[in-house]
Amino acid sequence: MRRGKICANAIALALPLSAAALGDALAHTSERAVLMLLPTDYYLIGGAIAVACTFAVLGFMPAHILGRIFVHDTEAPAQAPPRPENGRRYAVSGLSFLIFAFLIYGGFAGSRDPLANPLPLTIWTLGWVGLTLAHALFGNFWHWINPWSGPYRIVTALIRRDEERPPLSLPKGLGHLPAILGLFAVGWFELVDLAPDDPGRLAWAAGAYWSITFGAMLAFGEAEWRSRGECFSIFFRFVSLLAPFARNGAGRIVPVVPGARVLAAPPPPLSAVLFILLALATVSFDGLNKTFWYLDLIGINPLAFPGRSAVVWPNTFGLIGMFGAMAGLFCFCVAVGARAAGAKNPWAGLGCLVLALLPISLAYHFSHYLTVLLVNLQYALAAATDPLGMGLDLLGLGRFHVTTSFLADHRSVEVIWNLVAGVIVIGHLWAVVLAHAIALRLHDTPRRAANSQVPLAALMVAYTVFGLWLLSTPTGA
């Protein structure tokens, strides 16, 4: 009882102290918005308090409590019949394909302004930012809305081919390498290409990605390629593990503690670990490559930026370097922690523990893109009412004007500051708790589990401070 009271008091103190340390912080750097500086002392003190309180809570918390918190019924009934494939999924996917095809056409025929053409706004704002956050809230619905399943079903039906017997077999030894290459290509195009927002250029790139993916599905089968080759299917599947909803053994969707599905998921193989780390590195480099520090490092004056053509090769190597650093540091910390816990195999927990980084990545994803989302959603609405730039008003918006005035109002900006700071702190605490819960399952005693977490916790602290620094530091380019 006494330990339970201490645990409860520590929890009660941890969040207010963390929020108080970060509550007045000014945060966010974003494209096409404003620069808001976060004082260095605020986030350093706040991060230190959050980490200290989290470890204090975990140190006093009995091991069985975390098991009860993250319990999730995933066992299927013994006599449960297999569920037939729902034809509505193919209909939704077919509609998604038609919308995608119209967006590609709009990329070629619509406005040349990226903020007036629906293609860049849909892919970079609604897709990369909005869908990622939506999957963390509602679970994996990309299975329904992807633009390939519907056309794939039609083509395989027309050629009378058994969907379960594709002509080629994807070698098992490749693991998730095709998805890693696909994600790197997408990240490179967004962060390094000369004009990723140009509607025509983006239309060619998006059309090429769709065609390559569809051809690979016809060659290797839809299920196989989407599970190991199509990067968005894999990325959204991992993000959806954080959702507060899950399907139980009886097939019903039920609420669960966010993160319960992380503990219930099978450990990803090494190739999937690298895929997740590449996703984290891509989002981090998206913030790093615009900072004064990075531009000075590669010899560019941030106040006289010469254009993206001058940084193609530095940014290419920078993206690769960020991925290498992220992968190397994570693997090193897991191995050192396993040795400290007396584990015989230092890599045994690699697949499980990488999933604990997802909350930090999600928190930074939200914080980094928040003002972009708030502003560009307005542009997306304006583009939707006149998608081809013909003077139409399909949504009846009338004289609709995009506004950023809320970023100049101290009351709304204060809300944004508090929201961003709170999400960063909660994401970090969430990740540490998940990592500790995973460690308790990997090691036979709480003491060994705690010992194994020291290096990884240090990495999480450093990654959190790094993310907050990215949000606060001045940017150019």
| Spatial separation of the terminal alpha carbons | 57 Å
Instruction: Figure out the total of helices.
Output: 19
Q: Give the helices and strands as they follow along the chain.
A: HEEHHHHHHHHHHEEHHHHHHHH
Mean pLDDT: 82
Shape call? globular
Strand order of the largest sheet: 1-2
Helix content: 55-70%
Largest pleated sheet:
2 strands, antiparallel
Number of E-state strands: 4
Number of domains: 1
Instruction: Indicate the proportion of strand residues.
Output: under 5%
Structural class: mainly alpha
Whole-angstrom Rg: 23 Å
Unreliable parts: 1-37, 74-84
Overall description:
- The chain is mainly α and 477 residues long.
- The protein has one domain.
- The strands form two sheets. Strands 1-2 form a two-stranded antiparallel ribbon.
- The longest helix is centred in the last third of the chain and has 33 residues.
- The N terminus is likely disordered.
Defining traits:
disordered N terminus, 477 residues, two-stranded antiparallel ribbon, single chain
Offer a quick outline of the entry.
The chain has 477 residues and is an all-alpha fold.
Write the layout of secondary structure elements.
Layout: H1 2-22, E1 28-29, E2 35-36, H2 40-60, H3 63-69, H4 87-109, H5 118-138, H6 142-145, H7 149-158, H8 177-191, H9 199-220, H10 222-228, H11 231-239, E3 245-247, E4 253-255, H12 260-264, H13 270-288, H14 292-297, H15 312-340, H16 350-354, H17 358-385, H18 410-442, H19 446-472
Antiparallel strand pairs: 1-2, 3-4
Helix pairs in contact: 1-2, 1-18, 2-18, 2-19, 4-5, 4-7, 4-9, 5-17, 8-13, 9-10, 13-15, 13-17, 15-19, 17-18, 17-19, 18-19
